[in-house]
Amino acid sequence: MLDILNYSFMVRALIAGGIIALVVPAIGSFLVARRYSLIADSLAHFSLAGVGVGLLIGVDPVFTALPMTIVGAIAIEYLRQKRGISGESSLAIMMSAGLAIAVVLAGLSSTPRSDFNSFLFGSITTTSWNDILILVVVAIISITIVIYNYKALLHIAFDEDSARIYGYKVNLVNYLLATITAMIVVLSLRIVGGLLISALLTIPIITASRISNSFLQTITIAIIIALVAVIIGLLAAFYIGMAAGGAIVIVTLLIFIVSLVIKR
Questions:
Q1: For residue 56, which of 2, 9, 109, 232 is within the disulfide window of CB 3.0 to 4.6 Å?
Q2: DSSP characters for 92-155?
Q3: Helix (H, G, I), strand (E, B), or coil: what is residue 166?
Q4: 8 A C-beta contact, residue 203 and residue 253
Q5: Rounded to whole angstroms, what are the CA distances from 207 to 34, 124, 197, 244, 246?
Q6: How many CB atoms within 10 Å of residue 178?
Q7: Of all residues in the chain, what percent carry a pLDDT higher than 90?
Q8: What is d(CA 33, CA 71) in angstroms, rounded to the nearest whole number?
Q9: Could you tell me if residue 263 is inside a domain?
Q10: Is residue 107 part of a domain?
Q11: What's the pLDDT tens digit per position in 29-71?
Q12: What is the separation of C-alpha 105 from the centre of its chain, rounded to a whole number of angstroms?
């Protein structure tokens, strides 16, 4: 099994996957708690529009997807907070817009379709050291924001109106959460894929919440589940030839099913 460490692309994939597994549950916990987990799915679809722009103009898609997805995240919160559009509706609007733009740009681009598919379903061979460096920076920023705003995020997740009364800057914290979610979604594209990242943001949290006794314990268990899923999923991708993202999500689903059987 250790022979995979002789392949530099697998080393990069394992490092990137490990970082994602550490960060994603910390963010996903608050999204699931406030029943807002579909924002990850919407942003993942919107990020594909940024990928399409990058492929069309011939630059690294991450550098176009990242700013576009952050703008999309801010737009979702703006529509929800300032325009009176429900969270569910704003998510649907941005998801549809992103996917429509991605389809159009993919058709216009002369880049091989396999390049676009690698962002849809994940590819263990496309992660570079530059991607990992950016991922480390974003992970540090995201974890710092979560730790610094932990009480506010927790309060807002369960009772937003009460959080306002207690003096928390609810709108600002919501924008921050949406922004770091957007960044993590984009940087997870190469490993998990745009169509499956929302599963990694939610399934480990839902599974962990069934067997934990506190919110912090839920995050900890979810991180362990995500790490196990990433490692097994990447091994399956390497040895069996499965799509990395699909393999990772299947592992999380199997763990969830086991939790259902163990704790009925």
A1: 109
A2: HHHHHHHHHHHHHHHHH--S-HHHHHHHHH--TTS--HHHHHHHHHHHHHHHHHHHHTHHHHHH
A3: coil
A4: yes
A5: 16, 26, 16, 21, 18
A6: 22
A7: 23
A8: 24
A9: no
A10: yes
A11: 998 888 777 888 888 888 888 888 888 888 888 888 899 999 9
A12: 23
Band of residue 144 on the pLDDT scale cut at 50, 70, 90 = very high
Is there a contact between 229 and 21 (Cβ–Cβ < 8 Å)?
yes
Q: Please count the structural domains in the chain.
A: 1
What pLDDT, on the 0 to 100 scale, is given for residue 257? 93
pLDDT higher than 60, residue 114: no
The answer, yes or no, to whether residue 264 has pLDDT greater than 70, is: no
CATH number of the domain that 50 lies in? 1.10.3470.10
Burial degree of 6 (CB within 10 A; 0-12, 13-18, 19+): exposed
Residue numbers of the domain that contains 111: 2-258
The phi, psi pair for 4, rounded to 5°, reads -65, -20
Q: Does residue 264 lie in a domain region?
A: no
This prediction has a pTM of: 0.86
Neighbours of 96 (CB within 10 A): 13
pLDDT > 90? residue 112: no
Within-domain flag for 251 = yes
Q: Measured between alpha carbons, how far is residue 194 from residues 40, 115, 125, 206, 220 in Å?
A: 9, 13, 16, 20, 25
Residue indicated by tokens 């733009």: 101
Tell which wins on pLDDT, 206 or 195. Answer: 206
Does residue 131 contact residue 17 with C-beta atoms inside 8 Å? Answer: no
